[in-house]
Design the sequence.
């Protein structure tokens, strides 16, 4: 009763202060990790990008914006940019839609459900040394099974990783196969947290399965979908290992040269750490731009717009 | 009595002070080789540690060549660098930092520097001066599949000397030697494109790079280089060599779909020890003069103070001795760096076990290397991409060479 | 509705079988390769069935490298990292979704931006920092720099957002402080999310290669991914031993997956909500 008699504003003030206090405690560990693992290194990277820092020699002179001008004028950088955007677009669409499709199938009560689930997660778990070996064999133009299947169907054999027209798509296919398990699990988690009661209510109202899916499940999956898309964009723009393992020297005519492989190239192969740092900062801005665009398009997403 | 005790104690004290305290120096050693090579190298370090009371060795595998370079770079900045490192591109960490300590030490009589092949010494130079000790060395070797050659009825008793002669044989093997019945059957391929191309350039009289004062400049855009590039293109156009599938070349070879393969000499120990594989080797064909380009790792000393460097040098001498280096090389697939190493019984046994060893050892007399320079990794990459454009008809050889030289020059100019 | 479900069932089943077969292919190859002889491994096209089942490959692994030590290090480090990461992420996600405080949006943007930088770029500056702090070759040096919590925090935020504020208000009326709300309302209701986040975090930490390589020199401090590289060699890899080792290395991940998978089979009902 006393609580009711307190004025609204002072009760709100008390609450607000309590929230802030709790928030401070809850958010500090996260902030500390961000400070030491992100802010400090980034300051260093910015400093490095303004010098001609070398991997091997002790060169450390200040060169101003030279590295940025080099990177932005480098045709290889723009090629990497184009390839990366292409990679991101295709992988994102394929990954999200196929994963969602499979997750809906796995959400049902079918026999061996647990086996199917773990099978779809297997590519994520298998070390890339093993899976890349098998895929390299798949893609072998001479004796690989993919071409053998094509030829037996009367279609022409493809060059897969060895032609500049198909190398990037081949890498994307491998990449999609490899990353599917993650998104399947995420979508499954999202689907599982939709209360059965909602679905029953819709079915009782006479909705068909398709309507249940599109009108009830999909909207309730929005936060997960948005998360999958956002992480998909960021991870695609940052991709490195899958491409490096499938096409060690950036592929035929450098058709699989992507932004992070370009950064790695500049920093560790060419030894120009300053340039690599500048390219990394440009990539940062690119990813930042993409996520802004995604936020503008997204309706229910994990942000505060 | 008391005086005697005090005098005795003082005497003891003086004696103790007079005995030089054995100073224990700690050496940190990193090595960029794993598997059998790593084990063999570590064993040598442990043996040295046991034999020498005044030195303790802390050894550690530091990842492959690339990862080791990263680790060493980071450690140099944070002042936690190792004392000795077995790594690739070592001169870029010593010579490029004006550290020519090793150059001053190699004249030690017990080191016997002239015993090491001169071409191999070039592999340890920066700016023309020695600043590393070559160690795990390899060269390209021309392997062939015995079964294919037998089926094609070709004998390699008198192996081809020039590339022109070789191409005829490769074509014949391709035409008549198809043992697998596969349509994907070829005469010749190479795993490391830039390595073979540089070898060919040198064979044709081109030095790949030229020294202009203290700077390096690309020299692979002249008529001699054009000839090599045209020859290479013809291999693809004549369908003797598959276009742009070099990363698959070794697999093709092992599957019996390739007659001849140029790959690293490091494969010999693996392929010679497998009875199921019938693989042989012949000397590398040449254009004007026989020559093969070197690759591999070197030993460098990265300590800061002179005293530790001297201790490290003793270790390096031990590792690079005739017995140790030759045993290491033969057990792990590298090549002996010392001519005297070939006289050792293990070397003779290796040659008897497989002719491939003999071929690789003989090639060492004609081994060649250019000096290390910052952009050498970039150059290999530019050359590999350039060859890709030539093979795929994107650019004609001369234009491709000119562009590659210009790109490299731009990188050097920074 | 039930009849269309029944009709579609076999189609779905067959599809899933095909799809699973495609996904599980390399795992089968890896499993069989662990039993192969050296000759089998190098044959190309790849041989599937080993010529003889060499169980000794597994023992070989322990002989060649201090496998057990690497295993223990990896398990210890990965588990501690996962636990810390989930704890930090859950607290952060709670604050960012359910609490009002100044700078909330900025904190979120900062966190999200931390995902825009690839590991290769921050590696060297981090090493310098860790080296200056004297943490090279220490467990702290292995564990702490791996705590990149942005991914798991945002993941948990997506799920926390779906927990209705009514529940929280109800708890507040009952007199719960925010810490109790966190422990007794948020966490129990997001077990699926926490399970998923833990699995992903564990997988990332388990596989980490570059950072442990750069921050350790002493072989006793090293983790499995580095240990596996010890088996590889440019002149003559024993590939079958590598596969045997890799097979043993995936076991903990599969265990974590199984533990987490139970959360999927349980149905999560947010009781008292619908009304």
Sequence:
């Amino acid at each position: 009763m006393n609580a009711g008699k307190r004025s609204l504003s002072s009760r709100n003030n008390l609450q607000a202060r309590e929230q802030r206090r709790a928030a401070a405690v809850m958010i500090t560990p996260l902030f500390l990790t961000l400070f030491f693992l992100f802010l400090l290194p980034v300051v260093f990277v910015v400093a490095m990008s303004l010098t001609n820092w070398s991997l091997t020699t002790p060169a450390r002179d200040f060169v101003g914006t030279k590295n940025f001008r080099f990177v932005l004028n480098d045709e290889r950088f723009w090629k990497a940019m184009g390839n990366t955007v292409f990679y991101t677009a295709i992988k994102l669409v394929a990954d999200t839609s196929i994963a969602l499709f499979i997750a809906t199938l796995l959400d049902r009560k079918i026999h061996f459900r647990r086996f199917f689930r773990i099978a779809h997660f297997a590519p994520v778990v298998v070390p890339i040394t093993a899976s890349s070996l098998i895929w390299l064999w798949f893609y072998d133009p001479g004796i690989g099974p993919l071409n053998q299947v094509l030829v037996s169907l009367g279609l022409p054999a493809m060059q897969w990783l060895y032609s500049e027209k198909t190398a990037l798509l081949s890498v994307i296919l491998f990449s999609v196969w490899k990353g599917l398990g993650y998104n399947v699990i995420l979508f499954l988690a999202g689907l599982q947290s939709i209360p059965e009661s909602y679905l029953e209510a819709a079915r009782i109202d006479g909705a068909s399965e398709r309507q249940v899916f599109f009108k009830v499940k999909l909207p309730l999956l929005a936060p997960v979908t948005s998360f999958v898309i956002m992480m998909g964009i960021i991870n695609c723009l940052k991709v490195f290992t899958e491409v490096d393992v499938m096409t060690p020297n950036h592929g035929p005519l450098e058709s699989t040269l992507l932004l992070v492989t370009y950064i790695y190239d500049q920093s560790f192969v060419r030894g120009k750490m300053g340039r690599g740092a500048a390219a990394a900062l440009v990539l940062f801005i690119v990813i930042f731009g993409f996520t802004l665009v995604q936020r503008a398009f997204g309706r229910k997403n994990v942000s505060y717009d | 009595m008391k005086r005697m005790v005090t005098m005795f104690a003082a005497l003891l004290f003086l004696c103790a002070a007079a005995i030089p305290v054995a100073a224990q120096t700690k050496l940190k050693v990193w090595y960029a080789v794993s598997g059998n090579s790593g084990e063999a190298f570590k064993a040598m370090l442990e043996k040295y540690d046991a034999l020498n009371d005044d030195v303790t060795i802390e050894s550690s595998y530091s990842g492959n060549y690339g990862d080791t370079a990263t680790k060493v770079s980071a450690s140099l900045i944070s002042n936690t660098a190792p004392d000795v490192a077995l790594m690739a591109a070592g001169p870029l960490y010593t010579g490029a930092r004006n550290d020519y300590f090793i150059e001053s030490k190699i004249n030690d009589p017990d080191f016997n520097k002239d015993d090491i092949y001169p071409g191999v010494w070039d592999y340890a130079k920066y700016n023309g001066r020695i600043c590393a000790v070559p160690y795990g060395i390899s060269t390209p070797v021309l392997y062939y599949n015995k079964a294919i050659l037998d089926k094609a009825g070709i004998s390699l008793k008198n192996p081809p000397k020039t590339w022109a002669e070789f191409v005829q044989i490769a074509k014949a093997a391709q035409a008549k030697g198809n043992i697998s019945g596969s349509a994907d059957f070829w005469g010749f391929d190479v795993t490391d494109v830039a390595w073979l191309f540089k070898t060919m350039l040198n064979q044709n009289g081109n030095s790949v790079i030229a020294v202009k004062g203290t700077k390096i400049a690309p020299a692979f855009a002249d008529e001699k280089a054009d000839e090599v590039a045209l020859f290479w293109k013809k291999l693809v156009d004549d369908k003797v060599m598959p276009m742009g599938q070099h990363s698959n070349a070794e697999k093709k070879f092992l599957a019996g779909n390739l007659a001849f393969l140029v790959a690293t000499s490091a494969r010999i120990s693996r392929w010679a020890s497998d009875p199921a594989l019938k693989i042989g080797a012949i000397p590398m064909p040449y254009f004007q003069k026989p020559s093969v380009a070197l690759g591999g790792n070197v030993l460098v000393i990265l300590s800061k103070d002179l005293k530790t460097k001297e201790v490290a040098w003793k270790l390096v001498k031990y590792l690079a001795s005739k017995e140790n280096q030759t045993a290491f090389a033969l057990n792990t697939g590298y090549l002996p760096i010392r001519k005297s190493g070939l006289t050792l019984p293990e070397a003779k046994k290796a040659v008897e076990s497989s002719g491939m060893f003999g071929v690789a050892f003989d090639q060492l007399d004609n081994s060649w290397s250019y000096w290390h320079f910052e952009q050498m990794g970039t150059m290999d990459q530019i050359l590999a991409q350039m060859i890709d454009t030539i093979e795929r008809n994107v650019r004609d050889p001369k234009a491709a060479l000119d562009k590659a030289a210009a790109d490299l020059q731009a990188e050097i100019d920074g | 509705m039930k009849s269309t479900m029944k009709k579609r069932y076999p189609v779905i089943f067959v599809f899933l079988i095909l799809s699973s077969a495609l996904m599980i292919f390399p795992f089968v190859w890896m499993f069989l390769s662990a039993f192969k002889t050296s000759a089998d491994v190098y044959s190309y096209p790849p041989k599937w069935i080993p010529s003889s089942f060499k169980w000794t490959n597994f023992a070989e692994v322990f002989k060649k490298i201090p496998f057990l030590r690497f295993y223990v290090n990896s398990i210890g480090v990965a588990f501690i990292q996962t636990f810390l990461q989930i704890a930090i992420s859950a607290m952060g996600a709670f604050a960012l979704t359910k609490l009002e405080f100044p700078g909330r949006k900025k904190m979120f943007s900062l966190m999200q931006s931390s995902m825009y930088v690839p590991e290769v770029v921050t590696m060297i500056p981090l090493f310098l920092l860790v080296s200056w702090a004297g943490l090279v070759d220490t467990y702290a040096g292995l564990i702490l720099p791996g705590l990149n919590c942005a991914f798991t925090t945002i993941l948990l935020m997506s799920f926390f957002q779906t927990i209705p504020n009514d529940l929280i208000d109800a708890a507040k009326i009952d007199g719960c402080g925010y810490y109790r709300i966190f422990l007794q309302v948020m966490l129990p209701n997001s077990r699926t999310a926490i399970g998923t986040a833990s699995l992903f975090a564990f997988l990332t930490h388990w596989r980490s290669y570059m950072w442990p390589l750069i921050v350790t020199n002493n072989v006793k401090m090293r983790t499995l991914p580095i240990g596996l590289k010890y088996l590889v060699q440019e002149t003559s890899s024993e590939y079958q031993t590598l596969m045997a080792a890799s097979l043993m290395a995936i076991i903990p991940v599969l265990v974590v997956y199984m533990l987490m998978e139970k959360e999927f089979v349980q149905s999560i009902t947010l009781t008292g909500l619908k009304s």
